[in-house]
């Protein structure tokens, strides 16, 4: 046996073993990487699904809260309302906006998940809330106190009538002292409702992250 023959006899099996082991290692690495990518993709899909559901809830809450403000601002059919009466009812509903959205957490969800046009309109509504509360916070809190007492059980009709009269007085004061443009608020509500509905249907597409 020549040395070349001996070398071939020993080297070829060794190379074959090494080659097979290398392929196995790389195959295992590719398999591990593929499984990791699959897990990451599944986690991403799960996150997107949960985010999508939370966005729907936030937008539906915004729609409901804005429609309440709109009903307060719009003139009642067949009723002879003064501007002051419309104004007081609109401010009363506007005052409840933050609470109906879920306070700071609910507002944050709308501003996180909603499309840019919806966020801008929501911020305009909240700006009006801030302005009215800044200018008429005392009247609003007194009115709120009256309402809480009125929904509580009361056996004394005289006391209940007095609370109703006090509630009406605070509403009248709000309507007379505020400069709220109820028609502009009504238009803002309509734009917000339309934008939120469009966003619910995916009309604004997917925003870049």
Report on the architecture of this protein.
With 209 residues, the protein is mainly α. It starts with a helix and ends in a 9-residue tail after the last helix. It has one domain. It has seven helices and no strands. The model has no long low-confidence stretch (mean pLDDT 83).
Key traits:
single chain; 209 residues; mainly alpha
End-to-end separation in angstroms reads: 71 Å
**What is the gyration radius calculated from CA atoms?**
33 Å
List low-confidence stretches.
Answer: none
Give the tally of β-strands: 0
Give the ordered list of helices and strands: HHHHHHH
Secondary-structure content class: mainly alpha
Helix count from the secondary structure assignment: 7
How many domain modules? 1
For the largest beta-sheet, the strand count, sense and barrel status come to: none
* Cα shape: elongated
Entry summary:
The chain is mainly α and 209 residues long.
Compile the SSE list and pairings.
Elements: H1 3-73, H2 83-95, H3 97-101, H4 103-113, H5 116-151, H6 157-177, H7 182-200
